[in-house]
Amino acid sequence: MPLEPDASPCVIVVGAGAAGMAAAHHLVQAGVDVQILEASAVHGGRLRCHSDLVDFPLALGAEWLHADATALEEVFDRPVDVDLVGYGPDDRQLHFDGAAHEEPLEGGDLRFIRSSWLELFDRYVLPDIAEHVRFDTEVVGIEETGDRVLVTDSRGGTATADAVIVTVPVTVLRRRGISFTPDLDPERWKAIDKIAIWGGMKAFIGFGERFYPTFLTFPDSDTKAGQRLYFDAAHGHGSADHVLGLFAVGAPAEPYRGLDHDGLRDHILAELDRVFAGAASPRYRWHISQDWNTEAHIGQAYVADHAKWRRVRRLGEPASDRVLFAGDAYTDGHNWSEVHVAARSGRDAARWLLGWLPSA
Ligand SMILES: Cc1cc2nc3c(=O)[nH]c(=O)nc-3n(C[C@H](O)[C@H](O)[C@H](O)COP(=O)(O)OP(=O)(O)OC[C@H]3O[C@@H](n4cnc5c(N)ncnc54)[C@H](O)[C@@H]3O)c2cc1C
To answer: Which residues pair with 36 in a beta bridge?
Structure first.
């Protein structure tokens, strides 16, 4: 069903990923009438998980907390009941450059035990905002008309609001998926068109037995062109299942993309067999994968780690008092491309509106 013209919430949030959910949550808690318009049939965006293959969630997008545990309280605005696990001296990292080398494992990243970013949003945010989300509603136009903003969806439906918070991935703007009236300023279009964005994918491979270390890296595991690594996806879950994860963004993701289901399996097993002297193929049970480039309303992994911070800061600036941007690429330029950063940016946009909207 298209949007109805008489639907006139105070604030429209475009996109129900981490940023959109955090923004809407903050506004709903302050008593503001909010509508979230989500192009796809599900909430979460790049937090998507697969939950019924093994006894822990498989995060097809965001998996780690790239901050200390206090960031969770900030994201969810309350104490968060979840167990976290880091990495310690018993965890092994193998580096393969034709030969395998043991490397010291660095990294302060944390993982959720038997939980996920999506599960936490489902527990702490979704109950308060679920009735405000409208799915299968792709926004294609945002027009400021005096003190209102007119939003148009792909079926020609419209709604107006006092303000709009746009949280779509930069790729959606780059392909001109939403038209703005008045048009966005040229400097912002330049940032949208030029900022470095990585495509990317993840895969999970189930094995009958574990033969791999905590992390497996390669010479292209962390370069300006992208990142990739295999990781023990069962780490910390206390599960009997053996699952190896593959994370790849930017150029190192390309060899895994465009392959069909069996082709990806063969490619991964050949690679692992080379490293582990044929140990992978006989133990293979199943695999799943997620290519974020081919997701209709996402089309990317995230803004590259080495992107220019000034461009990120430009993307994060409001277009006007009534049209704001929030999300993992729309920040103050200090951090980007992480869930807690996306949520913070959504919350900050909501706070800004609460500061001046007469109806808020
Ligand atoms: C492979 C991968 C691994 C990652 N790993 C981590 C990690 O370990 N830790 C971490 O912190 N972060 C990680 N990230 C990054 C993290 O997933 C993102 O930073 C975060 O989820 C972005 O949230 P968002 O709300 O800004 O955007 P999104 O999650 O992309 O949400 C935007 C929403 O807008 C919707 N939308 C798009 N166009 C329209 C439209 N026209 N109208 C209406 N709705 C629209 C989309 O469907 C989507 O639901 C990873 C990302 C990927 C892809």
So the answer is: 13, 133
Specify the pTM.
0.97
Q: What count of residues does the chain have?
A: 360
Helix crossing, 339-356 with 18-29: angle to 10°?
40
* 62 CA → ligand 1 middle, Å: 8
Which residues 6+ apart lie within 8 Å of 63 measured at CB? Answer: 111, 116, 117, 202, 245, 247
3-class secondary structure, 49: strand
- For the domain made up of 11-46+121-195+307-356, the CATH class stated in words is alpha beta
HEC secondary structure over 111-170? EECCCCHHHHHHHHCHHHHHHHEECCCCEEEEEEECCEEEEEECCCCEEEECEEEECCCH
36 lines ligand 1 (CB under 6 A): no
Q: Which of 154, 168, 173, 230 to mutate to test the pocket of ligand 1 (most atoms within 8 A of CB)?
A: 168
Ligand 1 pocket check for 303: Cβ under 6 Å: no
Nearest atom of ligand 1 to the alpha carbon of 345: 26
Ligand 1 centroid distance, CA of 18 (Å): 7
User: From first to last of its 360 residues, what are the pLDDT tens digits of the chain?
Assistant: 777 655 667 999 999 999 999 999 999 999 999 999 999 999 999 999 999 999 999 999 999 999 999 999 999 999 999 999 999 888 999 999 999 999 888 777 999 999 999 999 999 999 999 999 999 999 999 999 989 999 999 999 999 999 999 999 999 999 999 999 999 999 999 999 999 999 999 999 999 999 999 999 999 999 999 999 999 999 999 999 999 999 999 999 999 999 999 999 999 999 999 999 999 999 999 999 999 999 999 999 999 999 999 999 999 999 999 999 999 999 999 999 999 999 999 999 999 999 988 765
Task: Reduce the DSSP state of residue 24 to 3 states and report it.
Answer: helix
- How remote is the CA of residue 125 from the centroid of ligand 1, in Å? 16
